[in-house]
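User: Quick sanity check before I run a bigger batch. Here is a single chain. Can you write out its predicted 3D structure?
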Amino acid sequence: MKRAAAVLLLGLLSSGCSLLDALNPFSGSGPKMASLEPIQATVAARVLWQYDVGKSAGQAFVPAVVRSSVYAAAANGTIARLDDGQASWRIKAERPLSGGVAADERMLVVGSPKGEVLAFAAADGKLLWKTSTNSEIIAPPVLAPGLVIVRSGDHRLTAYDAFDGKRKWIYQRPNPPLSLRVTAPPVLVDKYLFVGFPGGKLIALGLDNGAPLWEGTVALPKGATELDRIADVTSVPVIDGRTVCAAAYQGRVACFDLGSGNLMWTRDISSAAGLALDSRYVFVADDKGALHALDRASGASIWKQDKLFLRRLTAPLVVSGLLAVADVQGTVHFLNREDGSFAARVRSDGSPVLAAPQLSGTRDVILQTSAGSVLAIGVE
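Assistant: Done. Predicted structure follows.
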């Protein structure tokens, strides 16, 4: 199994295939993806609207939710603003896209495979400015007060002025010989950025100048070969109150004190998909398709749901007392947060969901499939 995983990871590094494809060591032979067993729904979940924005071409496009509007992009350069599932405007960026979307009430920002950063007006899609970085952009940018923060494929963070696109600062750290393609953006809290890096590191940076404030070790690389030693933080860190948690592939889940960076606890769970956090639990989707609920204070196991084996899950999303997670067949599963039992299930267009579902309001889930469907799912 390790040999198969090594071959697939090497293909990821050289050919740019999706992370979810590369992290499935069982494609073609061996254990098979679990079939979905019928469930007894305990809540009502339904598709409120669906819109075709265009195919993702293997990129993990993330719709941006701003109040009641949704901004979505596709690999062919299409960008659309959706209000109640209808396009208020739809444009072509005149170039392929690979990273996005970030948006606020003034602007939206996307990135291209050639490292171009493009900002458009949220009101009408008019181009505001464009600039470039040194490598492809596969993660959504982050909008901060007066700044646009872009993570490029070489793991460099670059801050641009939000009004004219001029570069303000750069942060880059040494990378190991091999690392995974990471589609996770930094997380902004007040005047600080939190971002995961290859080698199992979680870094806190000052927003004003990109200076590192503290460094936490999520996982330590182990093994005899460089492939064995890949222990990258590939997903978005999650933050609530003074707790920040992150997960590493071939590594651990770890939670830290937000201000000091002091380690609170760790658990040996490998995850490339990521985490969710609420006032009581940390929820983790691991690399074999199991969902775990861990005690937020200690990391102790609360429950484990293993009936989604090898279904290549997204990071979970906490919504309306439930946990939502999507899979490689475009199915969205809703689970009870207290015991992990299935509460509802909604099918989309049958294509993979590569990025975590997003929350709209308090009860609606927004997601984008690889085939290009942007959906709003309501939970009652």
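Residues 2-15 form the longest helix (14 residues).

User: Great, the batch can go ahead then.
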